[in-house]
Amino acid sequence: MAALPSIFGADDLHFFNEGTHDRLHEKLGAHPRVVDGAWGTGFAVWAPNADAVSVVGSFNAWDGDACPMSRVGGSGVWEAFAPGVGKGALYKYRIEARGRVFDKADPFAALHETPPATASIVWDQQYKWGDERWRRERRERNAPNAPISIYEVHLGSFARVPDEGWRSLTYRELAPRLADHALAHGFTHVELLPVMEHPFFGSWGYQITGYFAPSHRYGRPEDLMALIDHLHQRGLGVILDWAPAHFPADAHALALFDGTHLYEHEDPRRGFHPDWKSCIFNYGRHEVRSFLLSSASYWIDKFHADGLRVDGVASMLYLDYSRAPGEWIPNEHGGRENLEAVSLLQQINDTLARKHPDVIVIAEESTSWPRVTGPTREGGLGFHMKWDLGWMHDTLRYLARDPIHRRYHQDELTFRSVYATSERFVLPLSHDEVVHGKGSLVNKMPGDRWQKFANVRLLFAMQHAMPGKKLLFMGGEIGQWREWNHDSELDWGLLDDPAHAGLSRLVTDLNALHAREPALHRLDFDPAGFLWVDGTDADHSVLAFLRLGGAGTRPVLVVVSLTPVVRSGYAVGVPLLGRWTEILATDAEIYGGSGVGNLGGVEALDAPCDGFDHRVEVTLPPLGCSMFLGPEAWDGVGFERRRPASVAPEAAATPEEEEPSGAR
Q1: Has 364 been annotated as catalytic?
Q2: Are 572 and 533 in contact (CB under 8 A)?
Q3: 12, 79, 311, 340: which is the annotated catalytic residue?
Q4: CATH superfamily of 527-629
Q5: How far, CA to CA in Å, does 350 sit from each of 315, 343, 346?
Q6: Is 106 a catalytic residue?
Q7: pLDDT per residue over 523-532, tens digit each?
């Protein structure tokens, strides 16, 4: 073992201990380097309460005396240099603390062994990117007024190799197949369930042990880079799920790292998650803040991710999350808010916004926490978007009802207008809704086979017609019958069935329409982008509304009929005379419908209706959604309704609280 000139400058240690270091992965961990002409690897680890630390590995027969580490001042950091050790070497840190000796994987390792093995691997990432054009265009692709439609994917179960024991595809094998499929369906972004290393495959990646290492199950870091690079070069953005809300208590990982509660809070009322039986980070500890801040930055800096979707934000924000009275500790003001987590989320979002203003950060949060997507300078959390789980729960609950009962529950669909622009929302139909006995999207629906598919077509059309960005979990687009199973691939053979193929085509056409018509995406986060025509016709279970894109854009009229009844001559108010062109009908035969429609469009009549000066008389298909493009530009500015339509309760309620999310 050789002496190591420290790679930590005074500023590094200061920022680390201050909780503001956002490139800690360049200092801690294992880094091949040359010292005094000798080639080898420098190791650095934070273990302030250890009595002694050494590096053990395949290069020294796991001998704890072969490579002792030295303290770096009073920072809690230990360093060592191992000559001749290079890329591919297995290693761990052997820690002596309080009379115990134990081995730990490197929290900052760039690669770990494939689970269930637990050693870290010395790695030096070398990859030549080819996505310069995409990165130049990223700000426009991620903009609030852009048409964003996200395809959510679990890498291990998208597709498998039958001739090799049904193993999952590697990152590089997946790249062209995923790109082909996502682009064929018109998606603009792919969101990957956590790719960070995790010991339990059934956690779907949400129980992370390697916050700086992609899962070795699918390849090496360069292979994940190649996947992201390929998607970028094909014109697809990539969002990575990231889980800072908790981590597993596996003995080889972060829990009790130096014999003490180092990364997690010591008090179980703050440091143990009752739902997921996992550890909660100590968000108030400065070095832990640097760890998480650096992890968030790492996936953007090193892997060119276009955004992060932050998992479990609600569980971070509330000290009493899933806890009974007496099982939680109030904050310094006596409240339930986790002020340390709040400030950390603000810090992460501010840092990413400063370093990468073209990247988006999305919160999985569905409580009434104010200004999740508001600027931090105004007390907001600083996220760019937030999942609208309230919309998802309400819509799926409504559509699961027999159509004969829907007339009594119309407010489940109209209530969203009360809060629709209070945040910048993503409308998610995510993985959490198709597991654990909840049923696939098709199997949630009532009625016979035809009606089930018609209801799913309605669901997808309403999602694309409502304000907000879109997200669909893999399998939804092909009408997966069974629940998602992470241990098998999607049922791709379903596409040989006309009903499934029709649903797939509808998703393709909805995404294309969503991207083509400015009214369907430009003002997603602006109240001026949506106008009810009539949301009160509960007796017929019909909704009608306009989507507007601002000056110079043509409005889109959306009419939704939620019963299996054909209605002819149904009058709907419109603001413009002329021909309203039918641009989509979910009941079209090419989608598996019955073919009831409006022969390409309808002419507006000079007769008042629904508070407008004009009307169209349309044919409503059974369980169908029809969209019509206005005859000319109309932005609604200055328009006053003759008869305002009351479509939602006067007193705003809170969107439904989120449930603990799936297997963690």
Answers
A1: yes
A2: yes
A3: 311
A4: Golgi alpha-mannosidase II (2.60.40.1180)
A5: 21, 10, 6
A6: no
A7: 999 999 999 9
